[in-house]
Amino acid sequence: MAAKRTRLSLDFLRVLDTVARTGSISAAARELDRVPSAVSYAVDQMQRALGQKLVRRQGGVMALTEVGAELHAVGLRMLAEADHVERRFEALRHGRAMELRIAIDTVFDLRSVARLVREFDTLGAGTTVRLLEEVLGGPWDALTTGRADLAIAGLASGGLPAGGGWDCRALGDVPFVFVAAPGHALAQQAAQDRGRALGDALVRSHRVVVISDSSRRLPKRSVGLIGAQPTLVVPNLAAKLAAIADGLGVGFVPAMRAREWIGAGRLVPLPVAQPAPVGRFAIVWRRSAGDKAVAWWVDALTRAGPGLLAGSAGLPGDTLA
After folding, report:
1. d(CA 67, CA 55)
2. What is the pLDDT of residue 247?
3. CB atoms < 10 A from the CB of 233, how many?
4. Which of these, 147, 156, 162, 194, could form a disulfide with 142 (CB 3.0-4.6 Å)?
5. Spans in the chain with pLDDT lower than 50
6. Are 255 and 177 in contact (CB under 8 A)?
7. Closest Cα partner for 180 from 209, 211, 212?
8. What's the CA gap between 319 and 103, in Å, rounded?
């Protein structure tokens, strides 16, 4: 017959952690709201069950032995996991998720969305907010594959993806502008032409900076290209603005996000024959999502509206704040 295995309880692990932190049976008892004899008994009982000394008196304080320190380290991980499970079920009981993942098109400034996190924190929901920066079809890909619960996404010509089950609130239109660095050849040509639109053939002869679609499963797409032309691919809008300002290429960018770069003399808007794109964006989430955190964020993002583009254009040296 197999020997009965000693089972560790979460209660004992809390006792051991409190003794280790306070260095005293009596101090641990006060923190745990117990009498010292109950704490001492719990420690003695576990030491007998394990056949190992877990704590010893050292220099006037209770210190962990080598075995006790090992058990304490493992116990802390178990206590953290138990706390996570308790908080998760408490959140579910109150209609909240432990984590809310928001996929945001790179057109929008993450810092503007992050400002809403502070407002959300005041609710005391205890929900972790994860902001995901996505490009083009990326927000939709994040929603459809379950990587995100909510998205700020562009509406393609076909509207919402097939399959239904989506709720949507319009955010508004985002106009784009064609820009280059002041010293770029196209900027100099535009100055000579005194505002006359630059032809497609001329623009196509220069490198364009584009952002890579972040979709993992949905078909990737691109916008703002004028036929086949030399291309530099970057991961997000901040990198695109910086690359164009450094003279590495040209391209269409959201007018609002380019405004400070233009005001600082880092970029200049150029007239081109190709019509500037206008992006239509919306807040999208699954209709089945009944989470209160999702509802709060839908309302907050709706109130912010196109202002999510404003507040910061991502100039070098800015930080997420």
Report:
1. 9
2. 93
3. 14
4. 147
5. 1-2, 157-158, 311-321
6. yes
7. 209
8. 20
Percentage of the chain beyond pLDDT 70 is: 79
pLDDT tens, residue by residue, 136-189: 878 888 887 778 888 888 876 445 555 557 788 888 888 899 999 999 999 998
DSSP 64-101: E-HHHHHHHHHHHHHHHHHHHHHHHHHHHHTT--SEEE
Question: Do 186 and 170 meet the contact criterion of CB atoms below 8 Å apart?
Answer: no
Q: Is 193 helix (H, G, I), strand (E, B) or coil?
A: coil
Classified as helix, coil or strand, 306 is helix
User: What six digits make up the tokens of 235?
Assistant: 């991961």
What pLDDT is stored for residue 195 in this prediction? 77
SS3 160: coil
User: Please, which residues bridge with residue 211 across strands?
Assistant: 234
Going by C-alpha positions, the residue among 57, 15, 62, 54 that lies closest to residue 34 is: 15
Read off the DSSP letter of residue 250. Answer: B
pLDDT in tens, 287-304: 765 577 888 888 888 888
Rounded Cα distance, 226 and 204, in Å: 6
- What are the angstrom distances between the C-alpha of 228 and each of 145, 176, 205, 243, 244? 32, 21, 9, 20, 19
Per the listing, tokens 């100039």 go with: 315
CB 113 within 8 A of CB 102: yes
**β-pair type (268-269, 99-105):** unpaired
Burial class, 126, CB count within 10 angstroms (exposed 0-12 / middle 13-18 / buried 19+) = middle
Closest CA to 179 of 268, 104, 96: 268
Pick the closest to residue 148 from 127, 128, 131, 126 (CA basis): 131
H helix runs in the chain, sequence order:
10-22, 25-32, 36-50, 66-93, 110-121, 138-144, 185-192, 200-204, 237-245, 255-263, 292-304
Question: Is residue 272 packed enough to be buried (19+ CB in 10 Å), middle (13-18) or exposed (0-12)?
Answer: buried
**Per the structure block, which two tokens stand in for 186?**
């196209």
Q: What is the reported pLDDT for 276?
A: 84
